[in-house]
Specification:
The chain has 102 residues and is mainly beta. It contains one helix and seven strands. The longest helix has 9 residues, at 24-32.
Length: 102
């Protein structure tokens, strides 16, 4: 089981990324594109072009976690692109955790 001691910050990367990349590419995007610390107590969220996949990157004391969720028939609701990075909180639910069927 995976559990956070405190509520982490959740950041959304607005541009889609290539999901063929491994763990090093999202870490570099957090540092270079988002200009954030990948070792911080935060979850960094990425999506693909079709919005049917999401990757979550986070760091604990032993290393990085990279989690992938793929939706078969739905797609994730993602905020419109206004800037490169967004902190996602909609009440207690991260924005990227919601998906819709169209």
């Amino acid at each position: 089981m995976f559990r956070f001691d405190t509520e982490p910050r959740v950041f959304l990367h607005r541009e889609p990324i290539d999901f063929r990349a491994g763990i090093n590419s999202p870490v570099m995007l957090v540092e270079q594109s988002m200009q954030l610390d990948p070792f911080a107590r935060a979850v960094y969220t990425f999506h693909n072009r079709r919005h049917n996949r999401v990757k979550l990157l986070l760091y604990d004391q032993s290393g990085f976690w990279l989690m992938l969720k793929r939706l078969e028939a739905d797609h994730f609701a993602w905020p419109r692109r206004q800037q490169g990075v967004d902190r996602a909180h909609d009440g207690a639910t991260p924005v990227a955790a919601r998906w819709h069927r169209y």
